[in-house]
């Protein structure tokens, strides 16, 4: 992959900021964000077989567009509200909905993960409204934080890394809500399973796959420069800025290849808590909704 010209990133950042202040809401076909890193990935621009194109740094991402990655592919997208997503290897993601009002600093993001994995880092929108990731097995809602969603067939695994809360609702309406980072929820045909702590080694391997594909640190999009935002990034929770703030992690880690590297070495203890079940106030359970 040829080294990216820093001017390309500057142009993309300026264009992104201009669009954010000019358009409070995005309909299908309008720009929702910009690609800040890509390896072995494509985008589907329409319904025909010839509407598939390679993804390159600086591409505008539109609502209604589908993104795809190969076995070692990665795509990083920075949205207008400063949220970001990282699509892992062998994955397909559609940006269904994006809206953002610069005046109120709020809006909505909705995506469908058709298969594979995606890491979501919340921005301004997710401080007010959940960022939703739909899968074949249910819907993951992320409020003011960072989560990883994996989808394989009817099964969905959602891992809560940082923030206010994350919920997983299956197709029958059963909901589990996590308030404590380092735990994961799994949805199967039998419903949403009890929360499980994510072992540190497994968590490390999972997060590495979003930097270099398949957890191989020797390869990856190292030619993509770290972004230089034109406006300060915001924290995704009500905690004060610092080591625990994803926004500060993005700015304070110039060696990172991509915007989505918020869960690097700055939070080594995210899953290092108790190996048992979470405390009572860390999980909320909503029973299935009866249907006639």
TrEMBL record:
Domain of life: Bacteria
InterPro entries membership: FecR
Protein name: FecR protein domain-containing protein
Protein's organism: Magnetospirillum molischianum DSM 120
Pfam families given in the database record: FecR
Signal peptide coordinates: 1-27
Region feature (Disordered): 207-292
Domain FecR protein: 66-163
Keyword field: Signal
């Amino acid at each position: 992959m040829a080294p990216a010209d820093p001017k390309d990133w500057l142009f993309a950042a300026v264009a992104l900021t201009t669009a954010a202040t000019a358009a409070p809401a995005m309909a299908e076909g309008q720009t929702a964000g910009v690609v800040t890193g890509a390896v072995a990935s494509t985008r589907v621009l329409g319904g025909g077989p010839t509407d598939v194109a390679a993804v390159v740094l600086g591409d505008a991402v539109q609502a209604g567009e589908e993104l795809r990655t190969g076995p070692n592919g990665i795509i990083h997208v920075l949205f207008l509200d400063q949220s970001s997503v990282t699509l892992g290897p062998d994955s397909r993601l559609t940006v269904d909905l994006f809206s953002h009002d610069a005046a109120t600093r709020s809006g909505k993001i909705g995506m469908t993960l058709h298969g594979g994995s995606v890491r979501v880092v919340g921005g301004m929108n997710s401080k007010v409204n959940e960022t939703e990731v739909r899968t074949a097995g249910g819907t993951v809602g992320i409020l003011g934080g960072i989560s990883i969603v994996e989808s394989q067939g009817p099964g969905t695994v959602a891992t809560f890394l940082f923030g206010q809360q994350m919920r997983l609702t299956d197709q029958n309406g059963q909901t589990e809500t996590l308030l404590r980072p380092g735990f994961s929820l799994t949805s199967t045909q039998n419903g949403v399973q009890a929360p499980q702590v994510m072992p540190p080694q497994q968590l490390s391997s999972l997060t590495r796959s979003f930097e270099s594909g398949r957890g191989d640190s020797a390869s990856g999009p190292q030619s993509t420069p770290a972004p230089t935002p034109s406006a300060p990034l915001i924290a995704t929770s009500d905690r004060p800025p610092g080591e625990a703030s994803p926004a500060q992690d993005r700015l304070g880690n110039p060696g990172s290849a991509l915007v989505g590297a918020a869960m690097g070495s700055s939070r080594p203890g995210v899953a290092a808590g108790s190996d048992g079940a979470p405390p009572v106030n860390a999980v909320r359970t909503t029973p299935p909704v009866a249907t006639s």
